[in-house]
Every structure is written in C-alpha cells, then in structure tokens.
Amino acid sequence: MAVDYREYTSKRTGEKSITATIRVANVKTRSQTFRTREDAQKFAEVNEPKMKAAATKASKATKAKRLDNPTLLDYQNEELETSLDLFEKSIHIRDSHHCTIRAVRLNCGSVKLGEIDRAWIEGYIAKMLNGCSHSGRVYAYNTIVHHTTLISQVCNWRAEMLKLDIKRIPFSTKIFPAGWDNERDRRLEPQEEKAILSTMRNIEGMEGRHWRLLMGLALETGARLQELVWAHWNKVNLPKRIWIIPAANTKCKKERVVPLSKQATRIMKLLSLMASDGSPLVFHSLADASDYKDKESKRRSLHRISSSFGRIVKRSDVVDFRFHDLRHEAISRMAMKPRLPTAKLMEIVGHSTMKAHRRYVNLRAHELVDAME
User: Fold this and answer.
1) 80 and 111 in contact (C-beta within 8 Å)?
2) Is residue 170 assigned to a domain?
C-alpha cells in the first residue's frame, strides 16, 4: 500500500505537472495528474481511505468464500495443533483422547497437515522412542500407537469436515519391530504390597487412611481409578453389599453393578465411618466433589491422584508399578475363585470381549498348580 508522486515537465509548453498513483493490494490502482502537488495530495487523501475500505471488504468476501468452499491448500496449510484444538471441541472427543492430545501437542512441533506423510510418521515414532513422558517413563509402543492413531484420526476428520476427498494418512504398525504389541501384565508381589501400604501409613491423617483403603478396594473389586475416585455414597448399598458404578464413570459408558466381597464390604464400612457431611464422595480427602461437574477438572484430579500414587510407589522402592496394575492384580486374583464363572467376572469388571479379559488374567505358576487341586 503506497502513494507515489512523480513530476513531469512538458517538452512542448514547458509546464510542470505531478501524477499521484495510489496502490492498494486487491484493488485496482488509481492514477491522476495535477498541476500542483497540493492537488495531488488532496486526491490521495480522499481516495486512499476509500480504496483501503474496498480492499478490506474484498478480503472479507474472499475469506468468507474460502470458508464456504475450503480448498486442498487450506487443509495442507492448517497446523496439526490447530486441528487438535478443533477436534478437542468437537462431539467426537472422548475422555481418553485428552491425555493423548496433550502429549501429541508437546511432541508434534509446528507441522502442517500437508507435511504429515509416512516419513514424518516414522520420524515422530523415532522421536518418541528416544524420549520420555512427563512422568519420566520411556514411551511404550502401545502409547505411540495411540499417538499415531489419533494423528491419523484428526487429519482424516479435518478432511471430512472440509469435504475434501484426499488419501488417508499412511500409518501401519508394520514399521514396528516384531513383538512390539506385548501387552502389559504387571502383577503385584506380596512384598511390594506390604512396602506400598507401609509408605501409605506414613501419610498423616485422613488422606493416609484413604490411600490404604483405596488400594484395598481396588484389589477387591478390580475397579479403575476414575471409578473409585468418583464413587458416591448414594451408589453404595452396604446391607445388600452392592456398589453401582454409573455410566459416566466407566470406560465404556455403561452402568456396572459390582458385588462387594466380605473384605470389600469391611473396607466400605470403614470408609462410611470417615464419610464427610460436606462431600458425597467416598474418598473425599483425595478428590474434590466440585471437580466432578467439569470434565477438565475431573481429568486434572485423576492425573494428580495417579501422579501421587506414582510418588508413593517410588518412595516404597517398587519399580515400574502403576495404579492401573492393581486392576491386573485384582482380576487375576478374582479369576482364581472357583465359584465365579468367567462370564460373571467379565460383567463385574466391565470387560465386553474375551480378548480384553485375557489381557488382565495373568496367573503365576503356583496359582495354576493350586487351581488343578
């Protein structure tokens, strides 16, 4: 955007004149000749604002047209981080996506959708294998698969939203080494359980007691962390020994009825003696009931509690044990109960397929021997 003034002298008459030329992007250039510089400047002062306004109007019209009719170039130039933000606000987002999106944001850089190809995916995988998570753990192949699957899903979703017919993002687990998909089968050893409970006893007050009872209830029910943390007293029926986990708290969004063992019932009775009038939560010292109303607050609370458990485990000198491993231990123990059919156990712990259930039942050699007696 500029105004140029050029002076001319007529060879025939010797008279001087000045030409004012106004250039504004996306608007036709205007030029006019005057006898004096003052007249030329007045011309510029009057017409330059008009041309700017016309350029702004044209730009808005072009932008609106592109929004109504996005092009392949719009898709290619959109940064992955922008697409992740849009996906997170969409109806397709799941609770499990949030942590993965946060990790992908930290590691994807300023890549654009048009730059994501097989080579970029391979580079991302290599970067993750050489890095560590925020908790200091090396990324597992299964975690990286979650990342790359989400990236592919978001890219394909954006193409669908923009109504573009493009090839799907190329990704295949064939680029991983053989045996990459070995499922986690971590069990809790007796001495490890004692060490962790001992550390929890050093935590003063209600919080320490809640930690011990939370771990005990996890081992008796096989419930997930979010199911335990957001347990409400109005869903616990001690006389009937039943705990109902509402659909909102389960992974598959289906209500689940959990029968309480004798030990689980004793734990619930102890927890009832510690119940707070100001909170409906069973574990009110570990989580704030106000966080339950907001998805992001729930996510942050669970992350905080999970991290706290990790620190307790570390102080106990127990290596590579996570809260979710308590679910593996619990389900393996429950599978040893002779009067509990597999189909009923799957219903209790919330497994919809035998494949998922088998991942959690990891019996030790001596347990198999005992089962044969």
Assistant:
1) yes
2) yes
What pLDDT digit, counting tens, does each position of 29-87 carry?
A: 998 989 898 998 999 899 989 988 888 888 777 665 555 556 788 888 999 999 999 99
Q: Residue 183 domain-assigned? A: no
Half-sphere exposure of 279 (CA within 13 A, CB side): 20
Sign of CA dihedral 126, 129, 130, 134: positive
Q: Do residues 78 and 60 both lie within one domain? A: no
pTM of the predicted structure, to 2 decimals: 0.66
For residues 142 and 238, membership in a common domain is answered with no
Helix (H), strand (E), coil (C) string for the chain: CEEEEEEEECCCCCCEEEEEEEECCCCCCEEEEECCHHHHHHHHHHHHHHHHHHHHHHHHHHHHHHHHCCCHHHHHHCEHHHHHHHHHCCCCCCHHHHHHHHHHHHHHCCCEHHHCCHHHHHHHHHHHHCCECCCCCECCHHHHHHHHHHHHHHHHHHHHHCCCCCCCCCCCHHHCCCCCCCCCCCCCCHHHHHHHHHHHHCCCHHHHHHHHHHHHHHHHHCCCHHHHHCCEHHHEECCCCEEEECHHHCCCCCCEEEECCHHHHHHHHHHHHCCCCCCCECCCCCCCHHHHHCHHHHHHHHHHHHHHHHHHHHHCCCCCCCCCHHHHHHHHHHHCCCCCCHHHHHHHHCCCCHHHHHHHCCCCHHHHHHHHC
Tokens standing for residue 201: 């006893």
**Could you list the residue range(s) of the whole structural domain that residue 38 is in?**
2-65
